[in-house]
Write a structure and sequence with these properties.
This protein has 407 residues and is α/β, with parallel strands linked by helices. It is built from 16 helices and 17 strands. The two termini are 26 Å apart.
Length: 407
């Protein structure tokens, strides 16, 4: 690896910043994210630990440009009033945040009364992502959600009244006991609200979660994949008719309202993650923070006590000095090329092979000529000049194409 200035670890064009908040009032039975309930006593010490980590990364990376900030979790809206503002202040001090940066916070409907919405907006957040999941009360109960359908609608309307003009609503489909009629009603009601962005996720039964165990024990039926496919197709047709652009496999937006932060991931761009269990991809490395919130507190304190120094390059000696890390891996050229292909192909407008090749440093059309042609012959991909994209019939079986670029 050639030596470069610290500022070049992150390109001049900037990076995305992800902030992981591990707290939840209750943990949903389908969730396998690094989140915890019953540790509210750690909220107060979490704030100085997180701001210290942000400051240390700012020093290490020589205060690079940040184009988007995403507060995820967990439930960031569950933090005490004023915490988001203090975290954003630390981010502004440690990084060069674009004045027009997209700043998103995930929130549960139950956290969004008028005062909370006004407070979040006043702290500098300009995009809200609300975990609606369903507008059927029976399914909300199955999912372990503590809001009613009417509360989700009210939360959205309250956010609008507070001044939020960029709101995403999350829904889940393919749920046990979910009928097509329930799905149609939920989606139609959601569209009527006219949010700027909609994310739809099929339920995945993750091992180790209560819901996976319930299905295995026969307490609830296994989701029907054919019905889930029909739900997805109904969503595509309904959202298109309502003027939403289907820009990524699971995401739709009104014109100009695609999620800028998530585009960094799909375009295989640079991003830094802070907070317990957060992942990062910078330079030639992928690395992740320790999972345990308690370990995170002590390890962040240790890093802050030693003090961070600007790095000339991001290499293992630098990563070894970051006490908050749980591990890292070097990203070789083969991995970079593969990830550029299968991440970029999630974007349904297609992957520009010339631009992607410039970023990867390899002629991707030539390198992957065989799998590209195979996917075209199988009806998984179509090509128009330099643009390679999934066929519509492949949206639900996209992994059949993606795996061919990983072999």
């Amino acid at each position: 690896m050639t030596t470069s200035s610290a500022r070049q670890i992150v390109p001049a064009s900037g990076m995305g910043l992800y902030v992981h908040v591990p707290f939840c009032k209750t943990k949903c039975p389908y969730c396998d994210f690094n989140t915890y309930q019953g540790i509210e006593n750690l909220m107060e010490p979490f704030l100085p630990a997180l701001t210290a980590e942000i400051g240390c990364w700012g020093e290490t990376l020589a205060h690079p440009a940040v184009n988007s900030v995403f507060f995820g979790g967990g439930t960031p809206s569950y933090l005490p009033p004023g915490h988001i503002e203090q975290i954003l202040a630390a981010i502004q001090t440690s990084f060069q945040v674009d004045p027009g940066a997209e700043i998103t916070i995930e929130a549960n409907p139950g956290d969004l009364d008028a005062a909370a919405c006004a407070g979040i907006l006043g702290q500098g957040v300009n995009r809200l992502s609300i975990g609606v999941q369903s507008l059927d009360n029976g399914l909300l109960n199955l999912l372990g959600r503590h809001h009613q359908a009417s509360e989700a609608v009210q939360a959205f309307q309250t956010a609008r009244q507070a001044g939020f003009d960029n709101v995403n609503l999350d829904l889940m489909y393919g749920l046990p006991n979910q009928s097509m009629d329930q799905w149609r009603q939920t989606l139609d009601d959601l569209i009527a609200l006219a949010p700027e962005h909609i994310s739809l996720y099929a339920l995945t039964l993750e091992e180790g979660t209560p819901m996976h165990r319930w299905v295995a024990e026969g307490k609830i039926p296994e989701p029907d994949p054919d019905l889930a496919a029909d739900m997805y197709q109904y969503a595509r047709e309904s959202l298109a008719a309502a003027g939403y652009h289907h820009y990524e496999i699971s995401n739709w937006s009104l014109p100009g309202r695609a999620c800028g932060h998530n585009l960094v991931y799909w375009e295989n761009g640079p991003y830094l993650g802070v907070g317990p269990g957060a992942h990062s991809r910078l330079g030639d490395y992928r690395f992740w923070t320790v999972l345990s919130p308690r370990d995170y507190l002590s390890k962040t304190s240790a890093w802050a006590d030693v003090g961070a120094q600007p790095a000339d390059e991001l290499a293992e000696p630098v990563l070894q000095g970051v006490s908050t890390l749980g591990g890292w891996e070097h990203i070789g050229l083969e991995t970079t090329c593969s990830e550029t292909m299968f991440l970029g192909l999630r974007l349904l407008d297609g992957l520009d092979l010339t631009s992607a090749s410039t970023v990867a440093g390899v002629d991707l059309a030539k390198k992957f000529q065989a799998p590209i042609q195979e996917c075209i012959q199988l009806g998984l991909l179509e090509q128009d000049g330099d643009c390679l994209r999934l066929t519509e019939s492949a949206y639900l079986i996209a992994n059949q194409a993606f795996t061919r670029f990983m072999e």
